[in-house]
Amino acid sequence: MSKSKYKNYLIEKPIYEIGAGIEVMGRQLPTMTFLSDTLISGSNHYVEFSWIYEVTDPNPLIGAHAHNVDQIALHIGSDPKNPEDLGAEVEFYLEDEKFVTEKTHLLYLPKHLKHGPFVWKRVSRPLIEMTICLGAGTAEAASPAGFK
């Protein structure tokens, strides 16, 4: 069998790094990193996700913060018959504006936009939290100050 020249673009084994050593109930930590410069040299983007399966403790896990890179954050419900239903209620802030949603959603967070905290009001079934950091090839570059 010939060696694939593109096999390195398929990540089937994540790195578990963000949130290592943090005690939290109700969610998977550390998160699963599926894209970073460590996994694919030169990627310069960072993608990680984890499962949230009940109201977290502590809640919120992290306070208001900002990143030095653009970030995309998604909360994805797990009901295939109603994929727009998050199966949870979350309250969060963008700068000083409060939002509350029960819908699967995406947040585009330009660099330096203060966001959070994310407070879980209810979690009825597991959901996925995914973050994509553009121009951050490492966990350190993707993480807000003081969180790793």
Please describe what this structure looks like:
With 148 residues, the chain is mainly beta. The chain has a single domain, classed as Jelly Rolls (Sandwich), CATH 2.60.120.10. The protein is 3% helix and 43% strand. The longest helix is centred in the last third of the chain and has 4 residues. The chain is globular, with a radius of gyration of 16 Å.
Q: In terms of structural class, how would the helical and strand content be classed?
A: mainly beta
Q: Which residues form runs of ≥5 with pLDDT under 50?
A: none
* Biggest sheet statistics: 7 strands, antiparallel
Kindly report the average pLDDT value.
94
* Alpha carbon gyration radius: 16 Å
Tell how many strands the DSSP assignment holds. 10
CATH architecture term: Sandwich
CATH topology: Jelly Rolls
Number of continuous helical runs: 1
What's the shape?
Answer: globular
**CATH class group:** Mainly Beta
Question: How much helicity do the residues have?
Answer: under 10%
The overall number of domains is 1
Roughly what fraction of the amino acids lie in strands?
35-45%
Order of helices and strands: EEEEEEEEEEH
CATH homology superfamily name: Jelly Rolls
User: What distance separates the N and C termini?
Assistant: 41 Å
